[in-house]
Design brief:
- The structure is a single chain.
- This protein has helices spanning 38-46, 88-98, 103-116, 132-145, 162-178, 190-196, 214-219, 224-229, 316-321; strands spanning 3-11, 14-22, 27-31, 53-58, 61-62, 73-76, 150-154, 182-187, 199-204, 207-212, 233-245, 251-266, 272-274, 284-296, 299-305, 310-314, 329-334, 340-343.
- It is an alpha+beta fold and 344 residues long.
- It has 2 domains: 3-229, 3-Layer(aba) Sandwich (Rossmann fold); 235-343, OB fold (Dihydrolipoamide Acetyltransferase, E2P) (Beta Barrel), CATH 2.40.50.100.
- A hairpin with a 2-residue loop joins strand 9 and strand 10.
- Helix 2 (88-98) crosses helix 3, helix 2 (88-98) runs parallel beside helix 4 and helix 3 crosses helix 4.
- It is globular, with a radius of gyration of 22 Å.
- The chain binds adenosine-5'-triphosphate.
- Adenosine-5'-triphosphate (ATP) is lined by residues 11-12, 14, 32, 34-40, 188.
Length: 344
């Protein structure tokens, strides 16, 4: 169930030319700025957009001449909606039914999958009676129930609010871990990529600019986009429920409990700075000293030392008001809901 693809697609003013492989069980994330060609790549893998050149091979079998329904590819696309007139159960049973599995058996399989994604009580609901997170899980169950060899996910979490996103991301990670086929995931969100993927492939302007595991890419970004992308505050520690103890003794509180070795990540935009210790403040609050101030897009990126070394993004107005300059002592906070912990 390994994927080997060379995707060449030409539109007026844009050309995509990327080579992509994914081993059985491997999750590959395609990341890139808007218009980089991620969706085009995914659609051409799915057979929804024609290749102008190249090939798509799954397990050594060329797929590019096969119609989408014969490709044994599961897709969870943002615009690939559930059938509105079918129940969750029949939406999920649709895949097996397409493969001529008898109705009762298809429904049994669908029920199992809906249980697996935690929707046992919602099998009879129509899509409009489901929340965004539930609909996303039905879409995932529908894709997996068809026993695809390749799973394609296009921004699977983008439509969800922050809290639902966190829960759904963790659950999705579990499902991907037990999925035996190859997975290709498109996302804008570095956290999705770090948490869900074994390997990242960064696409800019239709070309691969960097690929590798998260640690390698984080250590050695090769383009401005990648540098900004990995501009996450990332720590390794040991989780005991929602408390993560870092090696130098500082503890971070996270929203989702974990156990054992974990990473904790949050973006610089999640760090707030205050002149005095804030009252009734979020769970993570510590004194910090500014070491540098640099322009970062429309914001200023502030590097701080203290019990936790962090980067924070603040508006220029806030930087002036807080008199942020090297040596300035401030208080930093991060909400537990912004600090994501995931197994290391
Ligand atoms: N059918 C089409 N006809 C012409 N141009 C297209 C077509 N589909 C995509 N493009 C162009 O191809 C480029 C890549 O688009 P694509 O949607 O693949 O990028 P993306 O990386 O997924 O972007 P985003 O993150 O914004 O979704 C864009 O410049 C887009 O305008």
């Amino acid at each position: 169930m390994s994927l080997d693809a060379h995707l060449v697609v030409t539109h007026p003013g844009f050309s995509l030319d990327v080579e992509l492989t994914a081993a059985p069980g491997e999750v590959v994330a395609l990341l890139g700025p808007n218009g980089a060609g991620k969706t085009t790549a995914l659609r051409s893998l799915a057979g929804l957009a024609a290749l102008d050149d190249g090939h798509v091979t799954l397990d050594g079998v060329r797929l590019d001449d096969e119609p989408p329904e014969n490709r044994r590819i599961g897709v969870v696309f943002q615009d690939y909606l559930l059938f509105p007139h079918l129940t969750a159960l029949d939406n999920v049973a649709f895949g097996p039914r397409c493969r001529r599995v008898p109705r009762r058996q298809a429904r049994d399989t669908a029920r199992e999958w809906l249980e697996r994604v935690g929707l046992a009580e919602h099998v009879r609901k129509k899509p409009r009676q489901l929340s965004g997170g539930q609909a996303q899980r039905v879409a995932l169950a529908r894709a997996l129930a068809a026993e695809p060899k390749l799973l394609l996910l296009d921004e699977p979490l983008a439509a969800l609010d922050a809290r639902t996103r966190l829960d759904t991301r963790s659950a999705l990670r579990g499902h991907l871990t037990s999925f035996p086929g190859a997975t290709v995931l498109v996302t804008h969100d570095p956290l999705d990529a770090l948490m869900l993927a074994d390997r990242l492939v960064i696409i800019e302007d239709g070309r691969i600019v960097q690929s590798g595991d998260a640690a390698t890419i984080t250590a050695q970004p090769r383009t401005d986009y990648v540098a900004r992308l990995v501009g996450l505050n990332l720590y390794r520690g040991r989780a005991d429920g929602t408390t993560v103890l870092l090696p130098d003794g500082f503890s971070l509180i996270t929203a989702v409990p974990q156990e054992g070795a974990v990473f904790v990540a949050f973006p610089p935009s999640a760090v707030s700075l205050f002149a005095a210790r804030p009252e009734g403040s979020p769970r993570n609050t510590w004194p910090a000293t500014v070491t540098s101030v640099a322009r970062h897009g429309d914001a200023l990126r502030i590097e701080l030392t203290g019990p936790l070394a962090v980067a924070a993004d603040v508006t220029p107005a806030a930087a002036v008001q807080l008199e942020l300059e090297p040596g300035r002592e401030v208080w930093a906070t991060v909400k537990a809901t912004e600090a994501t912990a995931y197994p290391a």
